[in-house]
Amino acid sequence: MARMFQRPENALKRANEFIEVGKKDQALVTLYEVFKNKKFTYSFSESVLEPIMFKYLDLCVELKKSHIAKEGLFQYRNVFQTVNVGSLENVIRGYLKSAEERTEAARELSQQAVVDIDDLDNITTPESILLSAVSGEDAQDRSERTHLAPWVKFLWESYGQCLELLKINVHVEPLYHDIARMAFSFCLNYGRKAEFRKLCEKLRKHLEDIGKSSPTNLSNVNLTRPDTQQFNLDTRLIQLDYAAQMELWQEAFKITEDIHNLMMISKKLPNPKTMANYYQKLAMVFWKAGYYLFHAAALFKLFQLSKEMKKNLTPEELQRMACRVLLAVLAIPLPSSHPEFCRFIETEKSPLEKAQRLATLLSLPQAPTRISLIKDIVRANIVSLASQPLQELYELLEVEFSPLDLCSRVHHITSTLTEDSQYIAPLHEVTLVRLIKQVSQVYQTVKFTRLIELSHFGSPFQLERLLVDCVRHNDMQVIIDHRAGCVHFGKDLSDSREDKPDGPTLQSMPSDQIRSQLISMSQVLTSAIQIINPDVLQASREERHEKLVKYYLANARKEHLSILNRHKIIEERKMYVEKMNLQREEADQRKAEERNRRLALAEKERLEKEQKERERKRKENEMRQQQDQILKDKMAAISQKSYGQKMLKKLDEEDLSKLDPDKIAMREQEELIKERKDFQQRLKTQEKKVDYYERAKRVEEIPLLQKAIEEKKIEHRDYWEQKEKERIKALTEERKFFVEQHERLGRMAADKEAFLASLRSKRYAAFQEQLKEYEKRLEEERKKRLQERKEQRKKERMELYEKRMIEEEKRRQEEEEAKRKEEELRKKREEEKLAAKLKAEKDEEYRKRKEALDKKAELQRQREEEAERKREELLKQAEMDRMRRPGDGPRQDPPPKQVYRPPQRKTGPPEPARPEPRENRPEPPAPGKENKDVKISSEKWVPSFRRGKTEGASNGGPRN
């Protein structure tokens, strides 16, 4: 029916008519047809479509049809996401506000604070149906659940749909983040932990989609924009806060990783306030996870950031932050002296990998340690900034050696801690470990009761557990003798392990002394030899020095030449390797680009196929659900009627599952016809029976009715006569009373007229006086108001004149500013054109000069080659003439000509060696003499791809 309308206004009017008669589903379909027709949506403005959209969304909320609302919002977003973002924002905010109000109203009506359903996406499960069947809940509980749960599910689906619609559009980016924060608040208010996890995964997936989107499209969200980065950081920090409030610490840790990744994407660091909030939240997550070391590192980073960036930091705030950092560092458990034992434990990730991952969140190059953090806080002067009791605590745990009163003094200090009471338990455990290590350096055997007395606040079980942990980590050698009630400390003297002292140390253990005994003896013997005979060592040193000098002088030139030759070879090899690497990288890059292109095309086709398949399955499911719902509604409607109940009694569950709506309608029609025939038969039988009975009654009652009518006539006549006599008597008495009153009042008529005349004259005189006074005041008020109106008009004319003058001046200034900007733009364009022209001329001039120089160089090379060729021919001819002359001895072959070829710097194919200039060319050697320089040059290494050409040229062979 809705397709018959040609304008949206008519559709809205028709929908209102449907709503008035209670057909809200039909009204929703009517409005939905408007947004399905793209001709309507793109040809009308927001002033026409916005009221229709509000009405459409109100109906979707009232009927709890979120999927239909999503389709309408999708069409509205496509129309106004770039034209009028404000209208789209108003529509979405109004939709969510309406859903929140309805959900809150349902929550107030229900006695439940939250919905006791594990997953809102799947409310009705087989387990819940069985539980409801066997549970003892009453009808009130079930009605409250069925009333509140659908609204909570609808609100959750609305948040998810709006986030999906707005995830990659830059124009609605603030609205996207506002909706995400509203969804966080929903999860907290209704205690939806499962939905909060899904929301976190959805936001993480949206961030990945943003990274995969095309950056060339200006309407897409770009993560390189500072505004986008700040929006995402603020949203993740708020998300981290909600995760902490809901105690979802695993999700909180994932959120911190997301925040760190966003910071890595940004080219510059976020503002100090954001970083401080990040470090504060990260420290809380580390504390809840039990990573006390990284908790302290995060607080230290926060302290450094606050001290550097916050200018107005008061001494009280500085002391409070220093106290917290110092407590966090001191509360770090003492690390194992032998972490190599961790490698024997098979875990998914090694402790070093986990520590490096956590250090990355703090932007640290490597994982911190307890010792490094203590050094850092001492260097940052945090110990001196802390309060006096905490300074004493630092001295007790890290500097002083006092096992007898260590625990009592620490307990006295920790009992005064009120704000940072969370650190008391870790501090006590660290103190007990310190106590055990210090006692092991003083006593070899100690009573367990004495150890408990020294611990002051430790229980026997806790002490025994710490002793076992020390042995398990191979930090100490402890034997607990339960029979004697004592503890034995000691070390195996054959233990060759070297321990680094951690904390206050009084003396070395026996194994340390045994291990270092040989080293100490060697040092003492060496010092004794130097004292007894110092000249022997000095003479050996001088002799060794002279040998080194002679060796250096003998081989200096040769080593120098070999170093130079090696340097040249290395350079040529590097150039060759660089060339090959460059070619290989280019080939790999081309292959990778082609592979990525094929993968992207295949992925796109796969996604399109999956989208089509999902759409097909969704439509099939919707159609199946609609058919099932129609069947259920039909069966429910039939079961309310008598003939339907009879029909259902004849069919079992298997027959009902096989029937379709047409067969059910056919069975219903048959039962209805049969029921109607039976009813008509019963009506005919009953009609005959009633007819006979009524006829007999009428025959019997006719004489009785006639007798009763006669008796009624007599009673009515007597009653009328009695009432008539009473009426006549009352009228006679009334007339007599009125006559007497008329005579009595007639005697007072003259006095009445005289009184009324005097009263009228007095009132008329008073009226005339008041009238004169009123006219006088009226005249004065008229003059006063005329004067005020005159002054008011003058003032208004003056203000209007001044306003016009100001507007005129402002318009003139704007015109001058526009002219100035236009002139500047024109000059800038002319300068750009001139610069481009000059650049083109310079490029052309450079090209011409380069061509001329290249031609000149080519001519010079050809001339040099020709001169070299002629010179070689002349030398050959002269040598042959000399050898032909008689008496010059036996004939000798000329020595091979040595040609110096400089290393090739180009990456292309090698060129033939050019002849050297005449002044640098070596003279041919005389017969029978050696030319050392030529010999040295012939020993130079030549690359393999040049060796053939060089040997051919030197032996007089053909040149390539």
Explained architecture:
- With 960 residues, the protein is mostly helical.
- It is 75% helix and 1% strand.
- The protein has a three-stranded antiparallel sheet with strand order 1-3-2.
- Helix 8 packs antiparallel against helix 9, helix 12 (249-265) packs antiparallel against helix 13 and helix 27 packs antiparallel against helix 29.
- The two termini are 91 Å apart.
- Residues 669-696 form a coiled coil.
Low-confidence stretches: 1-6, 133-144, 340-348, 886-960
Strand order of the largest sheet: 1-3-2
Q: From the helix content, strand content and strand pairing, which structural class follows?
A: mainly alpha
Oligomer: single chain
Specify the helix fraction band: over 70%
Strand content: under 5%
Average predicted confidence as pLDDT: 79
Query: What separation lies between the terminal Cα atoms?
Result: 91 Å
* C-alpha geometry: extended
Largest sheet data: 3 strands, antiparallel
| Number of continuous helical runs | 32
Radius of gyration: 54 Å
| Annotation, overall tally of beta strands | 3
